[in-house]
Amino acid sequence: MLDTAYLLHTALETICPVLGVSIGDQSDKRTWRIDYADGTTKEQEQALQQLLATFDPATAVKPMDVAGLLSRVSALEANVTALDAATSTPLTAA
After folding, report:
1. Is the pTM of this model over 0.85?
2. How many angstroms separate the Cα of 84 from the Cα of each of 10, 78, 88?
3. What is the pLDDT of residues 16-61, one digit of tens each?
4. What is the number of domains present in the chain?
5. Looking at residue 64, what DSSP letter applies?
């Protein structure tokens, strides 16, 4: 399971860059803090605070594991190449 702070940080960065987040008590959002990046406007701070207030880690969008996906694609490509070499009819376009 992904860390709540990581999920929150990722969600907040859809609004604007943030330096980080701190979660004191997981069940008490009054202990959660956003560390704003330099140049964050008041409007962005309000939007970040609103997102924090409504954030639910159980329903948060999980970021994609791009490195893991690329690794799987590479493995599949290697399998196709091996199958091409072992058959008289290539599976891939020439």
Report:
1. no
2. 41, 10, 7
3. 999 999 999 999 999 999 999 999 999 999 999 999 999 998 888 7
4. 2
5. P
